[in-house]
Each structure stands twice: as structure tokens, then as C-alpha cells.
Amino acid sequence: MTFQSAGAEKLRLLASAVTVAQSVTGPVGSGFAEGAGPAETAGAEPVSAESDSAETVSADPAPDPADRLRLATAGSVDDGKSTLVGRLLFDSKSVLRDQLAAVEQVSLDRGLTSADLALLTDGLRAEREQGITIDVAYRYFATPQRSFILADCPGHVQYTRNTVTGCSTADVVVLLVDARNGVLEQTRRHLAVAALLRVPHVIVAVNKIDLVDFSAEVYAAIEADIRAVAAELGVAEIHVLPTSALLGDNIVEASASTPFYEGPTLLGLLESLPTARDEGAFRLPVQLVIRPQGAAPTSELRDYRGYAGQITSGTVRVGDPVVVLPSGRRSHVAGIDLGERSLEEAVEGQSVTVRLTDDIDVARGDTLAAAGDAPQVLTEVDARVSWLSEEPLRPRARVLLKHGAQTVQAIVRAIEGRLDLDDLTTVPADHLELNDIGLVRLRLASPVPLADYSVSRSDGAFLLIDAHEGGTLGAGMVQLAGAGRGEPAAAASSGRG
């Protein structure tokens, strides 16, 4: 292959397969998606239980990624999360035949008369116990109506950080409550985290309803308590249903044992709920600048200049005015390329290459934003930080802040307090321990476009990273005075001169 043909092939691949690293819409900026990726590919792939081998598996069953639902399970210890996940996978025919056979054999060896579906996730939990960094197990499964990414979170109170991880990008949180115990402290804690992270939908499964003889009175009392706590904590939308993960009641099929419940099954809810969409203005963190120059396959492409990335919010159309952040330079969209096709518009979730009418300085880490509704460019920010490291966070600590595709140096100026997850009040604190969520003031070495997390999950989320080892230390949610979107950013130094 000649140098010219090699260059042309590189350009073709860049233009047609620029599936960039995801920028998430949760408290982790782009980090939890990057963290979740390996776990997702490590999980079981969605197939029918009728399949004979893994060769029939499709790694990505969803024809429309925009409609893929991300859900997280949470609950106290022994509430039946693993069993519910196993039941959901089994009844939706998302288990390989050899997997089911292995579970049946282990169950038989343990003296059980039927397959213990909770064992379908035991392999991933064992891997985490052996030192895998990501403590949340991710699984793919699919139905004819929709595909899903499921994050199975541990239930123990000491692993609150894992609930934050699993819920950070979730469209739905499925919270389990043992019908025998009702609402516990950990139930309140998980609802508080869901409210803090602005998870669009919360489903509470009152599980093990069979162990209270399918009592309508018990269910009604627990439902009332749940709705009272959710209202107190500010949970936006909540659904409650009685389930038995062990027997399959109201998981995939409606149960005849719960005539007092007339709502949809768990799977019916999951198939009907809308995915989380950041309804804000257009944002595209630039992951790659495409300039073929001498490697261009044709003379028309010699001067091609495009900015590739994944749209994290909003819609962009040809002709729209945009601003480049943090520099503040303005231009208009000259074209939108998706592979070898040209588009008139692109929406959130699509990975595209945007061309501008003006030859201006744009680099990896910059953000293309709607000119009329751009976030503020800040060098100092207040934020809620979920601390994920065993090493405490103290004032004057030096870290890296990652937002979208941009990474800058930062220093902790002050720790204002720690969040009490039981009642969402702030108590004084001079440091943050593992699993703490605290109010932190950061000073940034370079300007970063940020908005309040309550206004935009994509604009207001970031990661804190260890500058020496590269590990994730914490996840942040920006809190701006006034909680409103800033004026279009004025020109600021980009640090490139």
C-alpha cells in the first residue's frame, strides 16, 4: 500500500468510523461512561435462551442507540436484587443455554429443586471481589421492543459510591424493598442519591410479596411510606409495584396473585418509559480534529477540516450559529458528516463530524455550543463531589478535572461541608472520606465551560482524577449561584496563545 493510499484509507476510516468515547450525562462527566465501557463489554451479551452457542450473540442488538434504556438496580442487602436481575434476564430470554445449564447444575449441587436465578450474576460479583476496579456489574439484554444496559449495584451501606456510579448515567433506577421490612434507612439513602443525581424515573419494587401472603394491606402501607419519603426528598417521578422475583410475579408477566395491583409489569414499565434526554441546547465536546491535507484521497478533501465528537445534548442544523468554548470564537455550521453521508441535522447521542464556515482555532477538548445558549466559562467552581477514593480529600489537594473531552489541573480551595444522605442536610466537614458527598470549591488552571447540574447534567458533570496514577477519585456536580444557565461565553484565553 502506498503512502497516498494509506492516507486515504486513514481518512476514510476516521470519517466513517468516528465512534468517539461517550460523554455521559451524569455526575461523572465523561468518566463513568469510560469506566462503564469495559464492564459492559465484560457482561453477558443479549441472546435468546434458545441459543446454543455464543456465536449467535450480537454485541449491540439495538438498532437505535438513542432508544436504549440504561437502568440501575439498588436496594438493601438480601432484598432480592440478584434474583430479580436473574429473573428479568431469564424471562426475557436473554440467557444462553449453557449459562442456564451451569446455574441449574450449581443449584442442584446446593440441594435446590430449581435453578437459583441469582447465580446468573455471581460470576461478575466474584470478579469484582478479585480486584476489578468498577464495582458495578453491567449486563446487556434485549426484548423485541427495546434493548437495555443494566447496572447491578451492591446493597451494603458502605458501597454507597457504587450506587452513585450505577445511577450516574441511568434513565431508570429500580429500587427493591423487602415487603417484610418496609422502608429502611438504606431505602431512604438510595432515594436520596436518585434525587441528588436527578435520575428521571424511579421504580420501587416491593419484593418478596409472596412472603407476606400477597397482602394488599401490607403493600398499600409500604407504598404510602415510599411515596411520602420520595416527596420529602424531591424524587421527580416514582412508580411502585408488588413483585416476587423468586416466583416471577409482575416481573415479565402480570400476576394473578395480586388482583389489587392493576398497573404494568416491571418489564412493561421499562419498555415504555422514555430515555433520559438532556433538553438543553446543542453541545459537542471535540474528540478529534480531522485534517487530511496531503493524505486526502481527492483534491476536494485536501482542505477538509472537521471536528468529530458525540453530541451530548440538543440538536444542531446546517447554518446554526455556534460558539467554540473556552475561546469564545463564533462561527456557523457549514456541514454535518456521518460516515460518508451528509446530514442536515444531528441530535443528542449521534457521533458526527461538524464543519464550520470559518477557519478558526479548534482543538481536542474544546466544546462546540449553541451560540445563543452557551454555558459559562469558569476558572473557579462550587460543586457537590461524591468522593470515591479510600484516600481522604483535603483542602489544597491537587487533582485533574475532566469535563467532556477537556482535562485541566485543579486545586481544592475549600471543603464547605458534607451531605447527610438521610435528610439531605449539610453538616460541617474539613475533609471527605470514601462514599462521602460534600460541597467543594475548586480553582481551575484553565477555563472550562460549566453550568449548574440541576439545569444540565451534561454541562454540570465532571470527574476528579489522580494526576499521578490516573485513577478516578471523585464525581462532581456543579452548583452555580442562581442555578441558571450563564450568558453566552465571552472570549477567554484557551491557553494556546
Summed up:
The chain has helices spanning 3-16, 31-42, 81-91, 97-109, 122-129, 160-167, 185-196, 216-233, 266-272, 457-460; strands at residues 69-75, 137-142, 147-152, 172-178, 201-207, 238-242, 283-285, 288-290, 306-310, 315-317, 321-325, 329-338, 341-343, 345-347, 351-356, 367-370, 376-387, 398-403, 406-420, 425-427, 437-450, 461-465, 472-478.
Please provide a written account of the structure.
The chain has 497 residues and is of the alpha+beta class. It has 3 domains: 29-272, P-loop containing nucleotide triphosphate hydrolases (Rossmann fold, 3-Layer(aba) Sandwich), CATH 3.40.50.300; 279-370, Translation factors (Elongation Factor Tu (Ef-tu), domain 3, Beta Barrel), CATH 2.40.30; 376-478, Translation factors (Elongation Factor Tu (Ef-tu), domain 3, Beta Barrel), CATH 2.40.30. It is 22% helix and 29% strand. The chain contains 10 helices and 23 strands. The protein has helices at 3-16, 31-42, 81-91, 97-109, 122-129, 160-167, 185-196, 216-233, 266-272, 457-460; strands at 69-75, 137-142, 147-152, 172-178, 201-207, 238-242, 283-285, 288-290, 306-310, 315-317, 321-325, 329-338, 341-343, 345-347, 351-356, 367-370, 376-387, 398-403, 406-420, 425-427, 437-450, 461-465, 472-478. Strands 7, 8, 9, 11, 12, 13, 15 and 16 form an 8-stranded antiparallel beta sheet that branches. Helix 6 runs parallel beside helix 7. The chain is globular, with a radius of gyration of 24 Å. 47% of the residues are buried. The model is unreliable at 1-63, 124-135 and 484-497 (pLDDT under 50).
